[in-house]
Amino acid sequence: MYNKKIFYQILLALLCSFLLSACGIRTLIQITEHQKEIGRTLPDTFRMELPLIQHNFHFYVQGKVNNQHNVMFAIDNMASNILRAEDVDEMSGSFWNRVPIRTRNAYGQRERAQLYLLDSLQIGDLTFRQPHFTRMTGSNAIHELLSDIALEKDGARVGVLGNNILPLMYWKFDLDNEKMILFSNRDSTLITEETAGFTRIENALRNIRPSLQLDFPTIQESHRFFLDVGFSGEIGINRRSFRNLSNQLPYRRVMVARTAELSETIYLFDNVDLKIGGILVKNSQITHTPLSNFNIIGNRFMQRFNFILAYGVCPREMGKRHGHAYRDLYIKPVAGFDNIQSTPFVTAMGFRFGTIGNELQVTAIEVGSVAEASGLQLRDKIISVGAYDLENHTREKLVAYIADRESVVVKVKRGGSIVEIPISKGAN
Fold first, then answer.
1. Do residues 93 and 159 touch, judged by C-beta distance below 8 A?
2. What is the dihedral of CA 318, 324, 327, 330, to 10 degrees?
3. 351-424, what's its fold?
4. CATH classification of 197-339, choosing from 1.10.443.10, 2.60.120.10, 2.130.10.10, 2.40.70.10?
5. What is the pLDDT of residues 32-43, one digit of tens each?
6. Cα–Cα distance between 193 and 177 in angstroms, integer?
7. What is the pLDDT of residues 335-380, one digit of tens each?
């Protein structure tokens, strides 16, 4: 009797698992078919130029939702379309479905995304009818990252344009001319013209498994990576790659505050030479972030290239199997490529600050640095840093300001107190 009861429990569990799996597959098919339907409404040939906005090393294009809401969209090929929950509600989004699989963001949080339909999305002259958007709630760390005072001017929102829309065309990031060029993936003549002079890396944009190879000449190793232009770093490595590199290359540790609650320690390699598509890139910066166990090439690395995200289905004249879907990457070094240097992760005193919850706070402190020894703490609210111009802050400006000084007084608010912290480069 007992064994029979267990048998029926197992049978019931298997049946539930099967039904959930079947529903999940059906939902994924519906998402894919909806995307294809949007793609079929696009003209067979088109080309348009838009301003390519670079802010904090992210790439943005301006769009409009429902013909009235201006949105600054960050381009992220490893994410879905995203808007904050309050913006989706204001735009009268209608609930469509939940993604059947729990996805993990860059900070290790897992959740099933809620998909909402909006009436329309306009990017330049193109209109996409009823696109899906993930409604991002405040419990997800990404929600806070979608708040940017510098971009939210004149009532504009900040969102993400991801793999619901990107695979419908080619996206050419012309950094030399600060343009985003969108063009059809059905016009082979146009594709040939726009990709001339670029190095093609086939199937580099797969998002199921890493397929973009980086070679490390110094240690004579190769590793495969995802390209993620939404990742605000140069090169991120997983635990396995970290073990390999840390046995052969020196690294530093940095404590980082990601959000008001989320902190972690990252591991930093400086001045690493590598090759991508046969092109040697010198002095790259590599980080290992335990919460994000992936090999990732990010947007700071891609600032060294003009590049094209190429999505489509092969016509006969491309020399591949007709109807074969491809996700290729084209790259061409920008002007001044050989002189580009990585921006230091922290200043020469071992700290940096950024925006958390619309306030400037200390967001990174290097372990063993003079900043740590002087008593600076993560999430200290910045009041002043010597005579540094806080209103026009960027990481590059802060790095340059600290590089020119032997000491500085950092005034912060900690709890209910105002604290002045003198930091000197010779303190250690």
1. no
2. -10
3. Pdz3 Domain (2.30.42)
4. 2.40.70.10
5. 777 788 888 899
6. 17
7. 999 999 888 999 999 999 988 877 899 999 999 999 999 999 999 9
